[in-house]
Amino acid sequence: MRHGVKLNHLGRTAAHRKSLMANLAMELIKHKRITTTLAKAKALRVYVEPLLTRAKSDSTHNRRIVFSYLQDKESIKELFGAISEKIASRPGGYTRIIKLGKRVGDNAETALIELVDFNEIYGGKAEKEAAPAKKTRRAGGSKKKATEEGTAATEEKAAE
């Protein structure tokens, strides 16, 4: 029985699993989104989100802890540089998993895992463009529209 077992072993030994998660995390940091199986994506989210939280405060201690997980200087630079700036205000939930369907060869469930703040479709640019919305109040809104339509109609009649 699996009482209290939170880690998906993915059919690998501990060393192989550690290496797999480190490589997937480095690729996610490098490319901002990767396609993998659903089980690996869910395991990767558990692995990489604490590292992203560590990257929010840039200190030697945090850099050493993250380096002990990743063992790649370029990933550490990217993580503590561009990524930490983007996720600074986010309280958690740095990754998004999108199911893609079944793989042709072995019918495995595939998924796209991505960093939320680096998706232009869902995140940053769309929100910034939609932000300056009209400020309206409930009271008097219909009166204003009616008078504007009425003046527009009278101006059209006068022009004819």
Task: Please give a structural write-up.
There is one protein chain. It is built from six helices and three strands, in the order H-E-H-H-H-E-E-H-H. It is an alpha+beta fold and 160 residues long. The chain has a three-stranded antiparallel β-sheet. A hairpin with a 6-residue loop joins strand 2 and strand 3. The longest helix is centred in the C-terminal third of the chain and has 19 residues, at 141-159. The N and C termini lie far apart (84 Å). The mean pLDDT is 85.
> Poorly predicted ranges (pLDDT <50, ≥5 residues)?
none
Name the helicity range: 40-55%
Instruction: Give a short account of the largest sheet.
Output: 3 strands, antiparallel
Structural class: alpha+beta
Secondary-structure element string: HEHHHEEHH
Strand order of the largest sheet: 1-3-2
What general outline do the C-alpha atoms trace? elongated
Please state the CA-atom Rg, rounded to the nearest Å. Answer: 25 Å
